[in-house]
């Protein structure tokens, strides 16, 4: 891949697997220095951070480490998220708060904690870029996932609010959201296993059924999302802020 992110420093949350791992790999291929945060201690790589996005102290430690080592942060991808497939009567207040804590508080804390370093890094010619991973479930409703859908709707609107706030204060940080459709990751594999068990998908080939729900008749890969993130992170997207980039094989276009 052309080195479209050469010289840039990035932080990706939820980077241990799935879409986050795909984005981190694509950013490295594009020439960026990439820090990856997740719940575990990682593989010993000194750019792997233990970063529970619910914890303000973890964010502050990550900010300190990146500032001291790199002196800059060009790209923040708020990707960490949790899914909850459960009908409304079975969602406890505790469940609801857990989904909001990871999916919404996590994005808020990330944007707030890194804003200063990113504003100092960006310039008119090369703006810093925050990319928040929402979902098509943040745009349209799906049954049995009210907490998840609501959290992703909040991510969509937080993104637009900050895009306008930073632009109106002349801060060189763009903020955009990505809305993936069905992407084959451990998160979706767990959901598909549950739907198959309930008899909602064909037991012999559930992934064929999942693909058939999409106009392009396929399930996406983390790389499909990662290439959108590379674009939004790059200087080629210098006039792009506040958008919702839907990558879903046509799902919400129907
Ligand atoms: N897979 C899909 O079809 C799909 C569709 C739409 C949106 N998304 C969104 O994409 C993002 C990534 O999803 P995925 O499918 O790769 O999920 P995944 O479950 O496969 O990976 C998520 C990663 O986030 C980490 N994580 C969870 N809670 C965390 C916390 N509190 N702090 C830090 N890290 C935490 C997990 O440990 C895991 O490594 C999520 O925000 C998800 O909602 C996924």
What characteristics describe this protein?
single chain; about 250 residues; alpha/beta; Rossmann fold; 2 domains; seven-stranded parallel beta sheet; 7 strands; globular; binds nicotinamide-adenine-dinucleotide
List SSEs in N-to-C order: EHEEHEHEHEHHHE
Q: Shape from CA axes?
A: globular
What is the percentage of strand-forming residues? 5-15%
Largest sheet: 7 strands, parallel
Tell me the distance between the termini.
Answer: 32 Å
CA-atom Rg in angstroms? 18 Å
CATH level-3 fold name of the largest domain? Rossmann fold
The proportion of residues forming helix, as a percent range, comes to 40-55%
The ligands found in this model are: nicotinamide-adenine-dinucleotide
Helix and strand topology:
Blueprint (H helix, E strand, L loop, with lengths): L8 E5 L4 H12 L3 E6 L9 E3 L5 H15 L4 E4 L14 H29 L6 E6 L12 H23 L4 E8 L5 H12 L8 H7 L9 H12 L10 E4 L7
Parallel strand pairs: 1-2, 1-4, 2-3, 4-5, 5-6, 6-7
Helix pairs in contact: 1-7, 2-3, 3-4
The structure holds nicotinamide-adenine-dinucleotide (NAD).
What does this molecule look like?
The protein is α/β, with parallel strands linked by helices and 254 residues long. The protein is 43% helix and 14% strand. The two termini are 32 Å apart. The structure holds nicotinamide-adenine-dinucleotide. The site of nicotinamide-adenine-dinucleotide has 27 residues, from helix 1 and helix 5.
Offer a concise description of the structure.
With 254 residues, this protein is α/β, with parallel strands linked by helices. 43% of the residues lie in helices and 14% in strands. Nicotinamide-adenine-dinucleotide is lined by residues 13-14, 16-20, 38-39, 51-54, 79-82, 102, 133, 135, 180, 182-183, 185-188.
